[in-house]
Amino acid sequence: MNKKIMEHGHEILASKNYDSMKDFIQHGSISVHEHCLRVAEMSLKINEKLKKINIRLNERAIVRGALLHDYFLYDWHDKTARHKLHGFYHPGVALSNAEKEFGLTDRERDIISKHMFPLTITKIPRYREAWVVSAADKWCSVVETVRMRKKRYNEDGQELKPGA
Ligand SMILES: [Fe+2]
Ligand SMILES: [Fe+2]
Description:
By secondary structure, the protein is mostly helical. It has one domain (3-149): Hypothetical protein af1432, CATH 1.10.3210. The chain has 8 helices and 2 strands. It has a two-stranded antiparallel ribbon. Residues 35, 39, 69-70, 137 line the site of one fe (ii) ion (FE2). One fe (ii) ion is lined by residues 69-70, 90, 115-116.
């Protein structure tokens, strides 16, 4: 695991509740836990690029915010009424879960609650760290979804039978 993720995120990663995200699937075979780690890694990569053009951001907030951005702790594939609107509501649920367990800064709160912008059109990120994590999340979600579809469909777009 990336050293910076361990350095800034060890408190979060040591939490039992956080570990339970391994049981929830995000896309395909990727758990929410793994997705959050990927988003943290991608956010750090973007941060490194920004450093090269002299844009300095709060690295700790980026790591902690990315790790907690999807801390909603339920299976969003479960098609109950609430989960149908998962895209709109999960940032608020993640924030409330994270607040209960971890002391958050304003930047970290902004990252978690605004990461779905522009879907949540009224929640425009205030801090640059939130833009970075939101972009990393979108990129990782595209890669995870494309990988999942690649496995399920052949080149002609025909659905593969299980085990094919
Ligand atoms: Fe999310
Ligand atoms: Fe996400």
